[in-house]
Structures are given as C-alpha cells and as structure tokens.
Amino acid sequence: xxxxxxxxxxxNQLLGFMxxxxxxxxxSRLRPVNLEIKRVLEKAFxxxxxxxxxENGIASVAGAAKPDQQIEIGMIGREGMTGLKVVLxxxxxxxxxxxxxxxxxxxxxxxxxxLAMKQSETMRDIMLRYxxxxxxxxxxxxxxxxxxLLPQKLAxxxxxxxxxxxxxxxxxxxxxxxxxxxxxxPGVTLALGELEDRGFIHARRGLITILDRAALIDMAKGLYxxxxxxxQRCLSPLGxxxxx
Length: 244
What we know:
globular, 3-stranded antiparallel β-sheet, 12 helices, alpha+beta
C-alpha cells in the first residue's frame, strides 16, 4: 500500500485527475512496482490479474497474427493505465501488454479496482474517458498502418514516445522499432536514415535523440495530434477543475 503523500505526488496524470475521495479509495490498494523492459503485464486471452498506472516508462499493447509477428496497436505511459478491459467489465484481452521502456508504476489488483469503481462514480467516469481516448489512439494507429509511409509512421511513434517519457533521448533498438511500426528491420533502418539525413533526429545504437520536434509533427502528416487533442478535450478539464 502507499500513503496519501505518495499518491498525491504520483506523476501518473490519470490518478492526478481524481478527487481526494477517489484517491483515498485507491491508496490502500496500490503498491509501487518497477517495470522491467519486456515484462509482460497482460497475456493475451488470459485473466488480467493486475492493473498498472505508469509513472514513467511505457507499456505497449500489441497484437499478433502469428507468434513472431507482433505489431503495436496502442501505447500507454504516465497519461493513462493498463487493464482497460477491466474498466469495461471484462477480465481479459486478445492482446498482449508488455513494457517497452522501463520505469515505475503503481499496481492494483483487478478485483480491488472493480470494487473501487463500484464505490465511486467519478473514478469510473475518469477511467471511461481514458478508454475513449485510447480508442482514438488505436484508430489513429490503424490509419497510420494503412496509409502512411514508414518515415511518417516512425515520426508519429517517436513523438508519442517523447510525450510519455518527457525526454528527447529515447532508448530504442531497431528490433523494438520494427515491432512498434510493423516493419522489417531493413525498412526501419532506411526510415531512421531518412529522418537523420533531414536533421530531425540523431540515431545511434540503442538511442534516438529528437532534434526537431516540429519537423517530425509535419512529417507525420496529421497522423499525430487527434488522439492527443482528444485527451485534452476529455481529461484535461478534470485536472483544471481540481485546481480551481
């Protein structure tokens, strides 16, 4: 469990939107955990035991037509939470959720979260708003995978990762990038080379540094932005209301 001060100082934005009464409901049920790289948080088609509120680091939701052909369909960082199927009243997902960038999170048992949601309408509303935002993000990912060239998809993905890590230096490998944007490693190498040649990024083994964010946004051709605006529309006003 964590104390009130620890919860109030959490960098998870979704928890930050909650009123004090909701935080009181959760405090005794949350515990801090480390998110190790590649740790599986949800296994496909298996009951979801725990839900995580990342404070830093990133989790990826990935689908696979074949065991060796994963592709990311959603990204979760300090703006949100895992376990959206639990929020919707189910207990499992057809997709796997794993840690893409290491960090820390607050963990709660799925049964404990269900009980807290039954006790608080405001908590349930906040989490359902996040589900709506996440659905927009996955829709944008589908759109990107359908119509975008690799450099455009890569630009969008790098922007999303920077948002969640608040760091222009992103710990990445070509292998992970290939999973994230649904491409072969040679294609990822070429796309990275194009962005680097244009001066948008600097890439070296295991690390990509963003040099020109505005240029990446332009490169993404409108694929980056809709989900981020939906987050602001659905959730940011809640945070503003807490401070009035």
